[in-house]
Amino acid sequence: MQLTIRNLSKTYSNGVQALKDVSLDIETGMYGLLGPNGAGKSTLMRTLATLQDADSGTATLGDIDVLKDKDALRRVLGYLPQEFGVYPRISATEMLDHLAVLKGIPGNQRKEVVSALLQRVNLWDHRKKAVSSYSGGMRQRFGIAQALLGDPKLIIVDEPTAGLDPGERNRFYNLLSEIGENVIVILSTHIVEDVKELCSNMAIINNGQVLYAGAPEVSLLALQGKVWQKSILKSEVDAYQQEYGSRLISSKLVAGKPIIHVYDENMPGEGFQASTASLEEVFFAKINGVA
Ligand code: ADP
Fold it and tell me: Residues 198, 202, 208, 211: is their CA dihedral positive or negative?
């Protein structure tokens, strides 16, 4: 199964062009859609989830025309939106059962399906508690359980790790990575680490445009030998920013001292050292438009 997206564009009524001619080929496995806030990720995710329409372009999943045959797409879609509503006092079991009814899972299978999913996302011991009382991490795992109802072929998770603490995030990563080899999972995120940990392929988008599509490792290779780092004083940050402009792709504090990374074909100045590029540098180099 492959998801083929061609020339998708979308302009909102306020004039914001959220998608500009987006084309992507997405194969089975975990696919990262990485971009800063406002890049257009949710617009793309919501369009693929048939919740809103694009102005132009096409998307096909196998032989399903995603944008036209919405019912067919919904039958094979699992979607975890950025925010999902939960009812107060309704337990995880009850809510999942209710959602299973909506998904059309036959009555004689529901109990088994619901139990298996609650076990799979490690919420069995908490199944009788209200989802509204869950921690952020538990809630996201519940979100995955509902997205897995009905054995979807395309699973879309929109910014799933925002707001999770490191432990919760790890448990969530483990769960996502177990989902399966025969489905497409698209993970939209502004967190580089999400993609680094989970995704064999990715796209970087900003201002509605695809800046890179491919394997993370390939993007790293392209930056090899072109990223330079230097430890500077806090008082010097502005001056370096001025001097290097968008080639200064990151400035991080390490033990309270700024370390800057500059993108350049050659050593950009005195005191710089060659640095191995990380996915974060790829991200900022692309976003800044220098690589
Ligand atoms: P992301 O998910 O990457 O943060 P979005 O797809 O939510 O990006 O937003 C892309 C751009 O479209 C942003 O500039 C945002 O403000 C704008 N936008 C999103 N939804 C709407 C809407 N319903 N009406 C008008 N503008 C919107």
Answer: positive
